[in-house]
Design goal:
Length: 350
C-alpha cells in the first residue's frame, strides 16, 4: 500500500493505492482518492490528519499502549466538505439501469473514450442540486466525492453530442423501464403543445367534432364567487379611474364600459348578467368518435397531471439559460433537463 500522485485534467491528485495479483500479473487498485494536491496543501484539517497518523506510527513503534487523542476542535475543523448526498440520485439512476444503457450505447460503433455514464450523471446531479453552465459544472465537480478526477471539460461537451445522437432511443428506453418498474398501465398519452408553434400551410379541412356540455353545482358556486370578486374590484377601479386602461378587458375590467359619448366608465350590468347565465356550465369539444361521454370526461380530468408536469418543467426545471450554440449540444442539454424532470416525477411517486 502506498500514496501515488497522478496527473489528470491539468491537476495532480493524491491517491492511496495498493498492488495485487490477478492471473499472475501485478495490478493496482485505488483504495481512496484524497483529492487535488493543490487543495490538500492548503487544507489545515488534512495536515492535522497526516500529523496524527505520523504520531500514531511514531508512538506505537515505541509504546504499543499509548493512545492518540483529539485535543481540540482545530484537529477536526476546516475540512473540505464533499457532497455525498448525490448517492440517493445514483440509486435511482441504477434502478432505471441508465448506466447500463449508456455504457452499451457508448460501445456500439462509436469512438467514445470517456465514461459517458459518469459524465452524464455528473451533469444531471448538478442540474438537480444547482443549475449552472457546463463550464462551471466542470470547475465545481470537486465538490462531489468520486468526481475529483478523470473528467475534463471537453468530455462534458462531447457527451452532449453523444446524448443527442441517442436521444430518441433513450426516451423509448426510459418509457419502457418506467412502465415495467412502476407497473404502469398506459391507456392514453396527452401532449401539451401550447408553447410549440409551427409555420405551415393548411388546406380547408372538414372535421366532425362532438360538443359535450357539463354542469356542476360546485363549479356554479365557484363561478359566482369568482365573478363577485371581479365585480368588487371593478367598483374599486371606478373609484380610482386612473388605473383603468381602455384597451384591456381582462380581469375586473371586463365588467366596465364607457358611457356613451364620454370618457367616463360605468359598471357593465349586461356583461355581468350574461356571465351569470353560464355559472356551473363547462363545454368540451372533441374529435374522438369512439369515446363515450364518461371516457371523454375522464381523459379531460386527467389533464391536470400533464399540466402539472409541464408547469414543473417550465418553472422548476429551468431549461434556460442555454450556454450552447450548436444544435446537437442544445439537444443534449435538453436530455439532461429531461432526466431532471424524470427525477422530480419519481420523487413524487416515492
Amino acid at each position: 500500500m502506498f500514496v501515488k500522485i497522478t496527473n489528470a485534467g491539468g491537476y495532480q491528485y493524491v491517491r492511496l493505492v495498493e498492488n495485487y495479483r490477478e492471473n499472475g500479473k501485478v495490478k493496482q487498485r485505488v483504495l481512496f482518492n484524497f483529492g487535488r494536491l493543490d487543495l490538500l496543501k492548503n487544507d489545515a484539517a488534512f495536515r492535522n490528519i497526516v500529523k496524527k497518523l505520523s504520531d500514531i506510527v511514531e508512538r506505537t513503534t515505541t509504546d504499543n499502549t499509548e493512545a492518540v487523542t483529539i485535543e481540540s476542535e482545530e484537529d477536526v475543523s476546516d475540512a473540505v466538505i464533499k457532497n455525498w448526498g448525490y448517492i440517493v440520485f445514483r440509486k435511482l439512476w441504477e434502478e432505471l439501469e441508465i448506466d447500463k444503457f449508456l455504457k452499451e450505447r457508448a460501445t456500439r460503433g462509436r469512438k467514445i473514450k470517456f465514461d459517458a455514464d459518469k459524465v452524464s450523471f455528473l451533469m444531471t446531479i448538478q442540474r438537480l442540486i444547482e443549475s449552472m453552465s457546463k463550464l462551471r459544472t466542470y470547475h465545481e465537480k470537486n465538490r462531489y466525492f468520486g468526481f475529483e478526477e478523470d473528467i475534463d471539460l471537453n468530455q462534458l461537451y462531447r457527451c452532449l453530442d453523444f446524448l443527442d445522437s441517442i436521444k430518441e432511443d433513450l426516451e423509448t428506453y426510459l418509457y419502457q423501464r418506467n412502465r415495467d418498474l412502476f407497473k404502469m398501465v398506459v391507456d392514453i398519452v396527452s401532449y401539451d403543445v401550447t408553447t410549440i408553434y409551427l409555420r405551415v400551410r393548411v388546406k380547408s379541412l372538414n372535421i366532425e367534432e362532438n360538443l359535450i356540455i357539463t354542469y356542476s353545482s360546485k363549479r356554479a358556486r365557484k363561478d359566482k364567487e369568482d365573478r363577485e370578486r371581479l365585480v368588487s374590484k371593478a367598483k374599486e377601479l371606478l373609484e380610482n379611474k386612473g388605473r383603468i386602461t381602455a384597451l384591456e378587458k381582462k380581469g375586473a375590467r371586463r365588467y366596465l364600459k364607457k358611457k356613451s359619448k364620454t370618457e367616463e366608465y360605468e359598471l357593465d350590468e349586461e356583461a355581468i348578467k350574461k356571465d351569470e347565465k353560464f355559472d356551473g356550465y363547462y363545454a368540451i369539444q372533441t374529435s374522438k368518435k369512439d369515446m363515450d361521454v364518461g371516457e371523454v370526461l375522464g381523459a379531460y380530468h386527467d389533464l391536470w397531471k400533464i399540466e402539472q408536469s409541464f408547469r414543473i418543467m417550465k418553472s422548476c426545471l429551468e431549461v434556460r439559460s442555454i450556454y450552447h450554440f450548436t444544435e446537437s449540444r442544445i439537444k443534449g442539454h435538453f436530455v439532461i433537463c429531461f432526466w431532471h424532470f424524470c427525477y422530480r416525477g419519481h420523487w413524487d411517486i416515492f
